[in-house]
Amino acid sequence: MNRQEYMEALEKALQPYDDQLRKDIMDDFEDHFVYGLKSGHTEEQIIDSLGSIEEMLKNIDDAVDSKPVEKQQSLVKSTMINKVIIDTKSAGVDVLINQSFDKDVHYEFNEASSYFNIKQSELKVKRYVEDDTLFITLDKDGSDPKLFSLFQDGTLSVAIPKEISLLNINGKHGDIDLIDVIVDNVKIATISGDISLDKVKCKKIQLHTTNGDIDINDSIGEITANTVNGDIDVDECDNRCLIVNSTNGDVKVDAQVEEMAIKVVNGDIDVCLDDKISKLYIETTSGDVDVSVAANVDFSGNIESLRGDVSVDVDFSYMVKRNRYVFTEGKTLVDIKSLNGDINIEQSISTHKKNKANEGIKKDIHEALNVLKDIGNLENLIDDEELKKFKDLMAQVKIDIKRKK
User: Fold this and answer.
1) How many CA atoms lie within 13 A of 172 on its CB side?
2) Whole-model pTM?
3) Consecutive sets of 10 residues in the chain, 405 residues long: mean pLDDT of each?
4) Backbone phi and psi for residue 142, each to the nearest 5 degrees, phi listed first
5) Residues 322 and 386 placed together within one structural domain of the fold
6) Within a domain: residue 99?
7) Do residues 78 and 140 both lie within one domain?
8) Whether residues 73 and 159 fall in one domain
């Protein structure tokens, strides 16, 4: 039986069930085929891991009648704990990290319910302390090591105190989220899954995912973010140093950064920076680069594209040599290059653009005032043609003002 035959048999077997339930199950099974094939498995292996249609129908009935799975939760006194290492490589779980309300480490595992026939034993959370380090691991005895887990087993939530110096998370399949966390150092690595940081304050942050996106919002620290297949988005952050690498994915940065280095093979780069930037390095093989900097920023360095167009709209001076722009008088050191993409550099809300807009508005108002003088007192207007001319001009001035603002 191949994928198409399996899905057709599944759809037929689900006919007696509720429309929404039937749709959810069909979507889930389709997702597992897509993910499994991307992970290098054959259709036969995926079907074997899913189990027979009859087994799946029994799992649905058992899931409806069964009681909720009991949570695994615990508390660890952190008097002597300085580091927390979380290892979920043996299972497909999401990891959620937040701040502890006290000085202890709290964790809770919520097992996911599933309609699928997964050939493995129950997942257990294990913990142990070695020197000043707390280890939290997931153990799945009896699982087939030859078959990569295609399913989410649940969510591991961990609350850590501010006193922790290192948080190290190693995952395999699942998303990892950090929300409202203060810790000295963060190191996260996963094979397949997204990584998200929101309101995280650290000295140093290291992130790596092979297949997944990285989102960093409103966070502080020296950040290194790497993904092979995925986008990277850094928004409203305050960083001394930001290093970003993506093989296949777009990069977007809107942050306060002193030193930044971005390298992308296949993907676009969109950067918006304020006057804090002192060093900027950008390199892409196949992708466009858009850089917007504050009005009082000036460059010293080179910008060039071998086979693409370069557009520069800034207040400070530069020289052009073929498709290479050279800046010599600025404070911000730049090196921006693309092999097969366009490069666009502009100053956001720059002074010269504001002045041009204001000059245009003043000109329109001046013309309107001249018309008023020619027309005279509006109360004494008797010429409908002149009145129409005045109204049309004032309406145009309104449109121009809105547009130029």
Assistant:
1) 15
2) 0.70
3) 87 82 80 77 82 74 51 60 90 89 87 53 78 85 45 80 93 92 95 93 95 94 94 92 95 94 96 93 95 91 92 89 87 94 82 46 60 54 63 62 46
4) 90, -5
5) no
6) yes
7) yes
8) yes
Crossing angle of helices 43-50 and 3-13, rounded to 10°? 30
221 and 245 within one domain = yes
Same domain, 98 and 225: no
Are 52 and 100 contained in the same domain?
no
Which phi and psi (to 5°) does residue 193 adopt?
160, 155
Q: d(Cα 337, Cα 341) in Å, to the nearest integer? A: 9
- Residues 81 and 43 grouped into a single domain: no
Q: How many domains does the chain have?
A: 4
Parallel, antiparallel, or unpaired for β 214-217 and 185-192? unpaired
Choosing from 158, 192, 226, the residue where a domain stops is: 192
Q: If you search the block for the tokens 């889930």, which residue do you land on?
A: 28
Distance of alpha carbon 242 from alpha carbon 262, whole angstroms? 8
| Residue that terminates a domain, selected from 41, 65, 89 | 65
* Residue 275 falls inside a structural domain: yes
CB 222 within 8 A of CB 205: yes
Element (H, E) at 228: strand 220-229
Answer yes or no: is 237 within a domain.
Answer: yes
Range of the domain at 400: 354-404
Joined tokens for residue 32: 């597992």
Q: For 290-302, write each residue's pLDDT tens digit.
A: 999 998 899 999 9
Examine the domain organization and report whether 132 and 30 are in the same domain: no
Both tokens assigned to 187: 């190191």
Coil, strand, or helix at residue 226? strand
How many helices (H) and strands (E) the chain has is answered by 6, 24
Residue position matching structure tokens 């302390």: 129
Can you tell me the distance from the alpha carbon of 93 to that of 149, in angstroms, rounded to the nearest whole number? 10
Q: What is the spatial distance between Cα 346 and Cα 310, in angstroms, rounded to a whole number?
A: 11
DSSP 240-285: EEEEEEEEES-EEEEEEEEEEEEEEEES-EEEEE-TT--EEEEEEE
Is 43 a domain residue? yes
Listed in sequence order, the residues at least 6 apart from 74 whose beta carbon sits closer than 8 Å to its beta carbon are 106, 107, 108, 125, 127
Helix (H, G, I), strand (E, B) or coil at 63: helix
**How buried is residue 361: exposed, middle or buried, by Cβ count under 10 Å (0-12/13-18/19+)?**
middle
